[in-house]
């Protein structure tokens, strides 16, 4: 049995999110259908992150297990020939049998993009959330520094009850601006549901002068959800990258090299 | 009677081009409808360029004449509140009565974007034309230099018969690459129909080594359409900007300042 991992890109606008839902158009359902067409087998396709309805991805990772003997370098083109236009398979590699797109992930990188301008943009409308009032980018940058490190992010979770443990480690968080675009790039070992959107909502309130930058530090200590900012909409969100241990990937590719 | 000029942005994917066509969804028809809703008058809305079906714009300019007394700075928001999501009014100014979006234009700037990668991208699919084979960017850059200046562009026109005069002046033309993206930015006093797309098709053939860069010089001399490259599809094309004489705009805005 082979395990194939694939980097997936999608425009989330017309999807009800990543995860399969009965009667809805989802990324996972489209991928399952495409894998079935290519491999002639119906197998589960597992994603690294269950992105929200409307959220995009340039670097989602999925895996599936198959007996099909298609050369791994042909997998992206084969999938793309049957995938809809708003999903693309970008790259595939042969992984070892223990590889799991979700559980093997060492970190995930998300980007949230704001269109900071009083007038909306037709071309950014699908990919950025508009904030009309000017943002104090420096205050937001100051706030972002508190996020880095190991913290309890309960205050930023949509449903705290779902988790045994709401501690996550943020490896890096940068807020950058090339106006009218302002974006947050955040890398962590894992994210609670709604976490990036609640962080961004809080940062926006800081940027609008409604809160002090130190509010982030207080939220990390208090852990009370009601105290954090509003949840910004998902269409500004993009899963940029999922990282795995170099060693795992190299070993997988060496194995694949022997196997072929 | 006031003359109002508006900078318009659109995602051309779901439009049958700029110009009104019976029974089709066009940018001009949507703009006419929006202007009518805002001004309560049915007036023509004239665009600087009739972009093709599928082509985009970040800086199309339109004008209309009206008796409506809406302050010009409120025009973009008023139009945006009734325009569909894939069109946005970005900026408006009060122009003098001789202003004409098309005939007063001093130059237009187009960008054509290529996604130069064997694997397609879901997020660039709407905005860039994919070329799978690697392009020789240097050869293309060499070819682009021949375009600058006053030339007869008949070889690059879709319908030569339509024009009394096929001479146009290209003020600047740059080909840039940040792989996998490769794009042409070209500014001219005017463009023949299909001109940018035929130029880009020719440049791609040069980039693939099927033609020498000097072919562009020869085409400008021969003027035979059949000799130029293929017409690349419109979805890689974007009308970036329309330039008017500074003097006209300043005078218009001064007048507007007095009028308000």
Kindly describe this structure:
The structure is a homodimer of 260-residue chains. In chain A, strands 1, 2, 3, 4, 5, 6, 7, 8, 9 and 10 form a ten-stranded mixed beta sheet that branches. Chain A starts with a strand and ends with a helix. The first copy, chain A, is built from six helices and ten strands, in the order E-H-E-E-H-E-E-E-H-E-E-E-H-H-E-H. Chain A is globular. Chain A folds into two domains: 115 residues, Alpha-Beta Plaits; 133 residues, Alpha-Beta Plaits, CATH 3.30.70. With 260 residues, chain A is of the alpha+beta class. The interface between A and B is medium-sized, with 23 and 22 residues.
The domain tally of chain A reads 2
Compute the number of helices of chain A.
6
The largest pleated sheet of chain A is described as: 10 strands, mixed
Specify the CATH architecture of the largest domain in chain A: 2-Layer Sandwich
Summing up helix and strand content along with how strands pair, one would put the structural category of chain A as alpha+beta
Which sequence of SSEs, written as H and E, runs from N to C of chain A?
Answer: EHEEHEEEHEEEHHEH
> Mind telling me the CATH superfamily name of the largest domain in chain A?
Pseudouridine synthase I, catalytic domain, C-terminal subdomain
- CA radius of gyration of chain A: 19 Å
Oligomer: homodimer
Separation, N- and C-terminal Cα atoms of chain A: 13 Å
* Regions with little confidence, pLDDT below 50 for 5+ residues of chain A: 254-260
- Mean pLDDT of chain A, to the nearest integer, reads 93
| CATH topology description of the largest domain in chain A | Alpha-Beta Plaits
**Helical content of chain A (DSSP H or I, runs of 4+):** 10-25%
Number of strand segments of chain A: 10
């Amino acid at each position: 049995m082979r395990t194939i991992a694939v980097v997936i890109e999608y425009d989330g606008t017309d999807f009800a999110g990543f995860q399969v839902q009965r009667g809805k158009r989802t990324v996972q359902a489209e991928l399952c259908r495409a894998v079935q067409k290519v491999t002639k087998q119906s197998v589960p396709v597992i994603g690294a992150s269950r992105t929200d309805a409307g959220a995009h991805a340039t670097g989602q990772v999925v895996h599936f297990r198959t007996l099909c003997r298609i050369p791994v370098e042909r997998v992206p083109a084969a999938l793309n020939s049957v995938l809809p236009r708003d999903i693309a398979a970008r790259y595939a590699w042969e992984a070892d049998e223990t590889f799991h797109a979700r559980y093997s992930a060492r970190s995930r990188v998300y980007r949230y993009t704001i269109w900071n301008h009083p007038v909306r943009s037709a071309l950014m409308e699908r990919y950025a959330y508009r904030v009309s009032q000017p943002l104090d980018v420096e205050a937001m940058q100051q706030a972002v520094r508190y996020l880095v490190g190991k913290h309890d992010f309960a205050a930023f979770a949509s449903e705290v009850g779902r988790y045994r443990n709401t501690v996550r480690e943020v490896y890096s968080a940068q807020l950058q601006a090339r106006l009218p675009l302002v974006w947050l790039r955040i890398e962590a070992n894992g994210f609670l549901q709604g976490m990036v959107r609640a962080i961004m909502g809080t940062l926006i309130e800081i940027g609008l002068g409604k809160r002090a930058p130190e509010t982030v530090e207080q939220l990390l200590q208090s852990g009370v959800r009601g105290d954090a900012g509003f949840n910004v909409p998902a269409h500004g969100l993009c899963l940029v990258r999922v990282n795995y241990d170099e060693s795992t990937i190299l070993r997988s590719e060496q194995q694949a090299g022997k196997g072929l």
